[in-house]
User: What shape does this take?
Amino acid sequence: MEPPVRNPFVLRFTVTADDIDELDHVSNVRIVHWMNRAAVEHSTSLGFDVKRYRELGGVFVVRRHEIDYLASARKGDELVAFTWPTVFQRSSAERRHEIRRVSDDRVIARGFNLWAYVDFTTGRPTRIPPVLLEAFDPARFV
Assistant: This one.
């Protein structure tokens, strides 16, 4: 399985009964959950968990999701979620995602999130600190 970019974060998992909706395939809401989980685990893997964000005084929160649902996944399917940062601006960042089925390398969903970096105290957007810009520099991933 060739990743969509040079160095994405990779999260592997198996679809369970809890992921299935009334149409007997993975719920669209679960896709959003997996994309968010991959982003959070990627951040944690780079040393930025909630505790570290509190120390920095701010945290990323999702402002927008855009997802193309391209194929169904069913209970027992092994999936891989790829994620990588693509754009940073003053107080916002964009992250891309792709979820594929392992058995046939079929893309299940592809999307992006727009994140705002907000101050923990005020909840208002604030400038992304240099330490985060360095850790999530898109050039490290694409």
Summary: DSSP finds three helices and five strands in the chain. Residues 9-140 form a domain with the Thiol Ester Dehydrase; Chain A fold (CATH 3.10.129.10).
